[in-house]
Amino acid sequence: MTDPAPTALHRLRQSNAERVLGCLRRHGELSRAEVAEHSGLSRTTLSTILGDLIRRGVVVETELPPSNRRGRPTGGLALNPGAGQYLGLELGRNRIRLVLADAAHRVQARDDLSYGSARGAADRLALAERAVREAADRHGITLGTLAGIGVGSTGPGELVLAPAAGLAEPDGLRGRELIADRLARAFEVPVGVDNNTRLTALAEATWGAAAGASDLLYAHFSHGTGGGLIIGGQLIRGTGGVAAELGHLCVDDTGPECWCGGRGCLERYASVPAVLRATGHRRWAVLRDALAGDGAESEVVRTAGEHAGAALAAMCTAVNAGRVVLGGELAELGEPFLRPLRESFARRAMRSLRGGVEFGTAGTAPWGGALGGLALALHESPLLARYPLPQHPEQAAAPDAESGR
Amino acid sequence: MTDPAPTALHRLRQSNAERVLGCLRRHGELSRAEVAEHSGLSRTTLSTILGDLIRRGVVVETELPPSNRRGRPTGGLALNPGAGQYLGLELGRNRIRLVLADAAHRVQARDDLSYGSARGAADRLALAERAVREAADRHGITLGTLAGIGVGSTGPGELVLAPAAGLAEPDGLRGRELIADRLARAFEVPVGVDNNTRLTALAEATWGAAAGASDLLYAHFSHGTGGGLIIGGQLIRGTGGVAAELGHLCVDDTGPECWCGGRGCLERYASVPAVLRATGHRRWAVLRDALAGDGAESEVVRTAGEHAGAALAAMCTAVNAGRVVLGGELAELGEPFLRPLRESFARRAMRSLRGGVEFGTAGTAPWGGALGGLALALHESPLLARYPLPQHPEQAAAPDAESGR
């Protein structure tokens, strides 16, 4: 056996460098003190590593806005914006939303467009591809440096990842696998596809109402009703990929059967179509205006809020998330929906939960799905798990370089 | 700055060794192939590390039962049983249960006793201490090699850890802090105290009905109703330490107020006292016998099962756990409770959940709380996070030894 010393040392250096890069990927721009705090590395070690990363152009020094009284700007650190672009894409029910960002988390371009006449999955994917290329063109972004794509799509199911070459058997693919495969082949980068609501939870924990929170329940009340759960900073998918399917939590066991196979599901009460159906309106804007009056609309929205509060009480009893972020058209109605929701939650939740839960409204809407895709590409998926670091010359040919990983 | 090379190399070796020891702590006895699989280390690296650990007496070679057709025994590996004892203790409602095990997960002694006339916390702790010392004596175990204690106690609340010296301000402590402090001082080892039901989830995932499962919901129907949740191999405690408080999930919002501040909590229906109250019986054995007849007992137990199924459907919708383990006296009633539970679960849960959830009954009862305490001491707490490894002589005085951790 050869002496493992040089390889081992290189790996330790690389592992420390990855820790620093991981902090910057996760949090965007940070001061040196913040990098030290998040990485847990000593000042001496950190100084060596940062010197090396800056020299090699992987990390750049920036100027943070003044945070002290004297108003002097402080030095910040960020991943080199030139080190790669990331694309977050939402293939929503009616619209495509896209966000192009650099590795420093700076959004360079965003766009949204309706599907128009594009109906089938293939047409819609082609439209999305064209929209990305056009947005990049308009903003002078070279897509040759694109490093990863994260996509939020509708409906339940598991995370799908495709390598840059696409999936092994591209024929007959459907749903998320089709999306991942086609986009990977079109842009020649790895692609991750997950539920758009679940990804919004990730966006809210990264940029939104609960930025930096490590435990978060996101609840979305829109055309569908859904949720996303973050525990310990990680998106929880569950054994079958359907964790936090809030819309299919039973809130009335004498209620109607649901397409999901359950009964009295929250989505039958606290979603845009359910509220429209119950009030006899066809357009959301009309219903919204009617809420100011004394009609049946207030009662329907109040019932929706009560059921939502009951479902959230059950969810919070299950996982004791300290932050609950509410999004979607119903949440945007404000107090007519939110007051009964909070009251119903308080009536059902144990005292120690009630005091410990902070409610907020979504801060990333309507870009949550696209920003969540971006967050997936930037720091949740294995896409970026190995930031490229050049081998030190003396270890380039070490035979045991993979051990210990 | 001094050359960090020797320290760095030592740390890498130590980190690989810790990875191997972590696998053995978590899984008990393993074959070399299993250690390689769980640790992800290369054959060459593993062979060097194991040679060193065996030479130093930290790991021992064992003989695994034959697993192949030829019936030849295969070599196994385990932590050296002589490397330390661990104590799992349950301070239950009526009884103390204790389990003494070696670092190889082998239980050497167990005991259970009632509190008798011991009423206050101090008396009960003194009784528990005496019981541990007597059990050790009876089995010839030297408590001088005791390395850690995990305790399951009743009631909600957060994990409390005390270092071997006890807590900093020992006066006026109550509940878990009192337990942790007094036991740490009595045995001069670190102590972790958590909810006994939550710890049973850990026991079930380590030794019980779901051994090796990484996602598990444990539901306990006894004097109280509670639960424990494991996601990705980790016990989930939640922001306020009350995750998986199944007993306080609201199953009937027109139901009675609960001491917890909620309303219509599951514990009001699916617990031993609730069932006794509703049937007018005073003794569980009598109720159990009456279940064979056509009396009101069957109806009460059926309702309890239905409510339990509803609560579990909500919990599984929240986290999509693939395994549900049921324990406690109600679960032990069998089909009169379990059939309505499963049917109620199936009626409410979305189809994709229904097919994906495997129900089982507890395999560690009545030792779940004590074994869970043991699991906490063995592999969940920081007690064992740094298995002592001697410094290599050339690095003993390296100045930067703490950087990078």
UniProtKB/TrEMBL annotation, chains A, B:
<dbReference type="InterPro" id="IPR000600">
    <property type="entry name" value="ROK"/>
</dbReference>
<comment type="similarity">
    <text>Belongs to the ROK (NagC/XylR) family.</text>
</comment>
<dbReference type="InterPro" id="IPR036390">
    <property type="entry name" value="WH_DNA-bd_sf"/>
</dbReference>
<dbReference type="InterPro" id="IPR043129">
    <property type="entry name" value="ATPase_NBD"/>
</dbReference>
<dbReference type="Pfam" id="PF00480">
    <property type="entry name" value="ROK"/>
</dbReference>
<keyword id="KW-0808">Transferase</keyword>
<keyword id="KW-0418">Kinase</keyword>
<protein>
    <submittedName>
        <fullName>Putative NBD/HSP70 family sugar kinase</fullName>
    </submittedName>
</protein>
<dbReference type="InterPro" id="IPR036388">
    <property type="entry name" value="WH-like_DNA-bd_sf"/>
</dbReference>
<dbReference type="Pfam" id="PF13412">
    <property type="entry name" value="HTH_24"/>
</dbReference>
<dbReference type="GO" id="GO:0016301">
    <property type="term" value="F:kinase activity"/>
</dbReference>
